[in-house]
Each structure stands twice: as structure tokens, then as C-alpha cells.
Specification:
The protein has 15 helices and 20 strands. It folds into 2 domains: about 10-100 and about 205-430, Alpha-Beta Complex (Adenylosuccinate Synthetase, Chain A, domain 3); about 110-205, Adenylosuccinate Synthetase, subunit A, domain 2. It is globular, with a radius of gyration of 22 Å. It has a 10-stranded mixed sheet, with helices on both faces. Strands 14, 16, 17 and 18 form a 4-stranded mixed sheet that branches. It has helices at about 25-30, 80-95, 110-125, 135-145, 150-155, 160-180, 185-200, 210-215, 250-255, 290-295, 315-325, 335-340, 365-370, 385-390, 400-410, and strands spanning about 10-15, 35-40, 50, 55-60, 70-75, 80, 100-105, 110, 205, 220-225, 265-270, 275, 310, 315, 330-335, 345-355, 355-360, 370-380, 415-420, 430. By secondary structure, it is of the alpha/beta class. Helix 3 (about 110-125) packs across helix 4 (about 135-145), helix 3 runs parallel beside helix 6 (about 160-180) and helix 6 (about 160-180) crosses helix 7 (about 185-200). Bound molecules: inosinic acid.
């Protein structure tokens, strides 16, 4: 019998915590080896940072592979604010990068009324608010599910745009009035503004699904760039304090139009501790000087909103859950340098609730907020020189750090592919002996 040769061509990268795991940096690393980078969910609520030779690029909608000059796709699962996207294209052009971007004609479009509604809905939700980024993401996905959203194919066709806005304007006005707000733009302004965006983006908009699947069949290496984090997923995250779409690995299929049989590998990103922006329970949250230390040292302030992030010890029940619902084959652990300098570090291995031990994350905010972490305490490590460590390899890193990394593998039952020990592109060490994207 002939031996079967398996080609690893489709890799999905997902956040396995509450977002902000360092996706920009790790996506940039894998993008260096990929042919195509695809965004498949979320919108400009995401903030992915790439640092190359000290220069910082912050992306919200554009796939991070832009810095590598790769083929880029914004899939149907993304909600596109065209103004933000055009600004990102202009910023890249200033750095002499012309992104090779294609956008799905099926991707939904964010309008100003979505932002107005995002703000208003949050105000009225009271205790149920998620602390959203107020970018209109939720209301845009609401319209998609309600089947009165406008898509990229509508804004590149002025007649279609006009017809749909004429039809929808009253409905949106009524919705906003319910919350006591009002439209600060006319129907005509909206049509002109969005027709202009459509005209500018028209050459990038099309049936990207066809070319993407063809590229996969030809053996091209495709990287699917996830957004947010598993704990923010609309189905599998902490409802209702997460985001408004699916962000787990499965969403790469629905958000780009690629069958699950095409996905070879899922890489889960986890920060060496946890962070969270917005509302909701965070069992390992550090409200003391250690929390302040991590926030300052790790620059834990939102890329999109600038809000200070809440921080806490690494939460293994949440990480194990993420490994399960995403089917993570490899983990990438980021920001291990930030934990350096602490005498002791802790890993939450389980929770206790009502005197019972719980090894898995409970399904609701109500239960999670009553969970108390059970910690394993480990020895901390001193600050180290990242450049030297990269040169001399993983074994040269402090023994305590390596023990911490081994503990994560043991507790999650998932191997570690790489570790990140600084924000720069080069501050990365591959731990695995096999390779993704050879
Ligand atoms: P939305 O996605 O703007 O609707 O916000 C919903 C929740 O998800 C809020 O708690 C946000 O702070 C959080 N969130 C959304 N995007 C991100 C992200 O990229 N990183 C971390 N948190 C996020």
C-alpha cells in the first residue's frame, strides 16, 4: 500500500483566553511562512500589534500579514467598517506597503447607526452590559441575523445602496428613538458617504471564497487569523459579557467559506497570565500590587480603546476548555518575560464552589463569579536578556521559567509550539521539534 503524504496547509490561530493574548505578534511569525492570511470573524473591536525593528503597527481590520506583504483576505464572517479599513490602508501606504487585499462581497458593513446603537444598548442593559468597544460590532451582527444588514456587495453598487438605505432608514431611526437617541446624519449623507467608500474599495471586493478554496487545493499555505478570545465567543464564552460572534477555530470555516476537512492545525495562543477588558467574572484577577506590576510591565492597556486591562494569574480550567472547544493541537505562550522578576508565580489549577472542587470552567457568569481559584505556587524567575536567550536557545532560559512552561503542557495536555519573550518579531523561541508550515 502506498504511504499517504499529508500536506499541512491550513493553520488557524485562535485566542484561548479573554483576547489580547498577543495575536499580532504570533500571526506575524506564522505569516512569514504563509502565502495567504485570512481574517474570518470580528471587526475593528480587535487590536493586533506587530513590532518590527522597534516600529509598531496596530491593526484592527487588516490581517496582520500585511507587514509581510502577503496575500490578504477579509472573509464573509468579518464586519467591516469601511472608514477604518481605508484609514488602515492609507497608514500602510505611508510606510510604502500596498496591501494585497481581497474582501468578501458577503461581509457585512458597519454603519454609524450601529455605533450609536452599541452605545445606547450598553446604557440600557445595566448589569447585563459587556463593556463593549462601542465600535458597532454587536448591532451589525444583530442586523446580519435579523436579515436587514447591508453587505460589501451593496455598498459597491450605489443604486443597490440607495434602495436599501431608503428602505431601512425609518426602521433604524425608530430603533434609535426607542433608546432616546437621534440620528445625526441624513439619509442622503449616509448614501453619499458609503457610496464613496464603496467606490474606493470596489476593486478589492469579490467572491474571495472561490479563489481561497482554489489556492488551498493548489497547496498554498493559508493562515486563518482569529480575533478576540475563546472566553468571548458568543456560544462558548461567558455569555452575555463576550463579543457578538463566534471566534473559535470552527468560525474559520463559516467565516471564510472553507470546509472543516481543509483545516490541518489549530494553534491556541495563551498569555503566561490572563487579562480582560470589559465586564464579567475573572476568577484569578489580581487587584493588588502584583496586578499593577503585570499591567505596567506588560503594557496591559487596550489597543482599540486604551482601557486598562484587568489582569490575573494563569487560569488552567479556562485554558483546558479552550483547548477542547477549539481542538487546539499546539499552544503558543506569550509574555513570559512579563512574569519575570516575581518571587513566586501561581497557576490556577481548579476552582472551588460551594465546597466542591471544579476542574472545568462553569457555563455561566453567575457560577463563574462564585468560583474561587485553587492555586499551584511555583518559584519565579529573574529578568533575562531576550536577545541572548534567542541566540542560545530555550535551554538557556531560567530553569524556573522552563518548569512553568512544562507545567502548562502537563496541565493542558497540549504541547507548546513556541514561546514569546518580548514584543519584537525576533523575540520568539520555537520549543517544538516538529514544524508548522514547512
Ligand atoms: P464588542 O466586541 O465590542 O461587542 O465587546 C464585547 C466584549 O468583548 C467586551 O467586553 C470587550 O471588551 C471584549 N472585546 C472585544 N474585542 C476584544 C479584543 O480584541 N480583545 C479583548 N477583548 C475584546
Amino acid at each position: 500500500m502506498l504511504a499517504e503524504v499529508l500536506l499541512m496547509t491550513c493553520v488557524v490561530i485562535v485566542g484561548s483566553q479573554w483576547g489580547d493574548e498577543g495575536k499580532g505578534k504570533v500571526v506575524d511569525y506564522f505569516a512569514g511562512k504563509a502565502d495567504i492570511v485570512v481574517r474570518f470573524s470580528g471587526g475593528n473591536n480587535a487590536g493586533h500589534t506587530v513590532v518590527v525593528k522597534g516600529k509598531k503597527y496596530a491593526f484592527h481590520l487588516m490581517p496582520c500579514g500585511a507587514v509581510r506583504g502577503k496575500q490578504l483576505i477579509i472573509g464573509n464572517g468579518v464586519v467591516v467598517d469601511p472608514k477604518v479599513l481605508l484609514e488602515e490602508i492609507e497608514l500602510l501606504k505611508k510606510d510604502d506597503i500596498t496591501p494585497k487585499l481581497s474582501i468578501s462581497e458577503r461581509a457585512h458593513v458597519i454603519f454609524p447607526y450601529h455605533r450609536t446603537l452599541d452605545e445606547a444598548e450598553e446604557q440600557f442593559k445595566g448589569k447585563m452590559k459587556a463593556g463593549t468597544t462601542k465600535r458597532g460590532i454587536g448591532p451589525c451582527y444583530e442586523d446580519k441575523a435579523g436579515r436587514f444588514g447591508l453587505r460589501m456587495c451593496d455598498i459597491v453598487n450605489k443604486e443597490m445602496l440607495k434602495e436599501k438605505i431608503e428602505h431601512l432608514f425609518k426602521l433604524k431611526e425608530k430603533q434609535i428613538q426607542v433608546y432616546g437617541g437621534k440620528f445625526d446624519f441624513t439619509k442622503e449623507q449616509l448614501i453619499e458617504e458609503y457610496a464613496a467608500y464603496g467606490a474606493k474599495l470596489k476593486s478589492c471586493v469579490g467572491d474571495v471564497n472561490l479563489s481561497l478554496n482554489k489556492a488551498i487545493d493548489e497547496g498554498k499555505k493559508v493562515l486563518f487569523e482569529g480575533t478576540q478570545g475563546t472566553m468571548l465567543d458568543i456560544d462558548h464564552g461567558m455569555y452575555p459579557v463576550g463579543t457578538s460572534c463566534n471566534v473559535i477555530a470552527g468560525a474559520a470555516c463559516t467565516g471564510a467559506g472553507v470546509g472543516p476537512t481543509k483545516i490541518d492545525t489549530v494553534v491556541g495562543l495563551a498569555k503566561a497570565y490572563v487579562s480582560r477588558v470589559g465586564e464579567g467574572p475573572l476568577p484569578t484577577e489580581l487587584l493588588d500590587e502584583t496586578g499593577e506590576y503585570l499591567r505596567k510591565k506588560g503594557a496591559e492597556f487596550g489597543v482599540t480603546t486604551g482601557r486598562p486591562r484587568r489582569v490575573g494569574w494563569l487560569d488552567m480550567p479556562a485554558l483546558k476548555y479552550a483547548c477542547r472547544v477549539n481542538g487546539i493541537n499546539w499552544l503558543a505562550i506569550t509574555k513570559l518575560d512579563v512574569l519575570a522578576g516575581l518571587e513566586k508565580v501561581k497557576i490556577c489549577t481548579a476552582y472551588t464552589i460551594d465546597k466542591k472542587v471544579l476542574e472545568d470552567i462553569p457555563p455561566s457568569c453567575e457560577l463563574l463569579s462564585r468560583c474561587k481559584p485553587v492555586y499551584k505556587e511555583m518559584k519565579g524567575w529573574n529578568d533575562f536578556n531576550a536577545e541572548e536567550a534567542v541566540k542560545n536557545g530555550y535551554e538557556s532560559l531560567p530553569q524556573e521559567l522552563r518548569a512553568y512552561v512544562s507545567e502548562i503542557t502537563k496541565l493542558s495536555n497540549t504541547p507548546i509550539y513556541l514561546i514569546s519573550i518580548g514584543p519584537g518579531r525576533e523575540e520568539t523561541i520555537i520549543v517544538a521539534s516538529s514544524h508548522i508550515f514547512v
